[in-house]
Specification:
This protein is α/β, with parallel strands linked by helices. It folds into two domains: 207 residues, Class I glutamine amidotransferase (GATase) domain (Rossmann fold, 3-Layer(aba) Sandwich); 109 residues, Homeodomain-like (Arc Repressor Mutant, subunit A, Orthogonal Bundle), CATH 1.10.10.60. Helices cover 52% and strands 10% of the residues. It has 16 helices and eight strands. It has a six-stranded mixed β-sheet with strand order 2-1-3-4-8-7, sandwiched between helices. Helix 10 crosses helix 11, helix 13 crosses helix 15 and helix 14 crosses helix 15. The longest helix is centred in the first third of the chain and has 20 residues. The chain is globular. It starts with a strand and ends with a helix.
Length: 321
């Protein structure tokens, strides 16, 4: 049996705690149905532990005999921090410093550590992700890149595994993180069973869910360019045209876009086209050729390739998702 330590700071998102408990309990039940021993026991720790112990214990009864054992896995629950200022403030609190000491010691022992959404900031702050791949929630990705340039951030990925560390994207990507953990310890059959019982679909990328307008709003001139581009998507937009709409020189515009969104101007324009194309696929019966024209592509094959890369599927899959 693997001991999973759930680190819960004050202000943790209740959903990440509940998701952790539900997925692990489901894995245990699936194994029990096949006459096998439970795979996971859970211990709750951290400054916010008291408020969630009864929730976790309702589906995963405590195991007194492992109360002081070293954990095999540590999962850091996500926190409600949606702005750069909130992240910086939360990282500076005493309980966050205590968490980092716990994670440092665990990493030195080779313990597997998992975190999603804003919790990845706490893991990165220890330095254990330096030189490694990781992901975090899309709306804090630009902040993460500035704070931890030594981490290889893949902001599009839903889940990234690198060595003993597993990171995941925005809040509900915690589901994907938990399935990845179940697969690692119980195999793909049990993970697939959990996904079926909990009605979870496989999602490899969070880029489809990225709201570019939210990121652009951090910079008024980038937001101005974004609004202009949305109205002009069917025309032959260029990066220079976007910069002019923002009232900035192209190089200055590129720096401002990167700071606000974590994207290059070309990626910024492509994301706008993807957002609009996905919206049209989901809300209209327009042909792919017509949708391609409306978002500025003369060849539908170009749009198909972009959708597969950025939205995780072709027009047919996205239309019926």
């Amino acid at each position: 049996m693997r001991l999973v330590e759930l680190q819960v700071l004050s202000g943790a998102m209740p959903s990440s705690v509940a998701i952790t408990a539900d997925v692990l309990a489901t894995a245990n039940r699936l194994r029990a149905a096949k006459g096998r021993r439970p795979a996971f026991a859970v211990r709750v720790s951290g400054s916010g532990a008291r408020s969630v112990r009864s929730l976790v214990g309702s589906v995963l009864p405590p195991q007194p005999e492992i109360a002081k054992a070293e954990p095999d896995v540590i999962i850091v629950s996500s926190l409600v921090t949606v702005t750069e200022a909130a992240v910086i403030e939360r990282l500076a609190k005493p309980d966050a410093a205590q968490l980092r000491r716990t994670l440092d010691r665990a990493a030195a022992r080779g313990t597997h550590i998992a975190a999603s959404c804003s919790a990845v900031f706490h893991l990165a702050r220890t330095g254990v992700l330096d030189g490694r791949r990781a992901t975090t929630t899309w709306w804090l990705a630009p902040v993460f890149q500035r704070m931890f340039p030594q981490v290889e951030l893949d902001a599009d990925a839903m889940v990234v595994t690198d060595g003993h560390f597993i990171t995941a994207g925005a809040a509900m990507a915690h589901l994907d993180l938990m399935l990845a953990l179940v697969e690692r310890y119980c195999g793909s059959d049990t993970a697939a069973g959990c996904a079926r019982f909990l009605l979870l679909d496989g999602r490899r990328s969070q880029s489809r869910y990225m709201a570019l307008g939210y990121l652009s709003a951090k910079d008024p001139q980038v937001l101005r360019a974004e609004r202009w581009a949305r109205a002009e998507l069917a025309t032959g937009l260029t990066v220079d045209g976007l910069a002019a709409a923002a009232g900035l020189a192209p190089r200055t515009f590129a720096r401002r876009v990167a700071r606000a969104t974590g994207l290059s101007p070309i990626q910024f324009l492509q994301r706008l086209r993807v957002e609009r194309a996905v919206e049209l696929l989901e809300t209209t019966t327009l042909s792919v050729e017509e949708i391609a024209r409306r978002v500025g592509y003369t060849e539908p094959t170009t749009l198909r390739r972009l959708l597969r890369r950025e939205a995780g599927g072709g027009p047919r899959e996205l239309r019926h998702a």
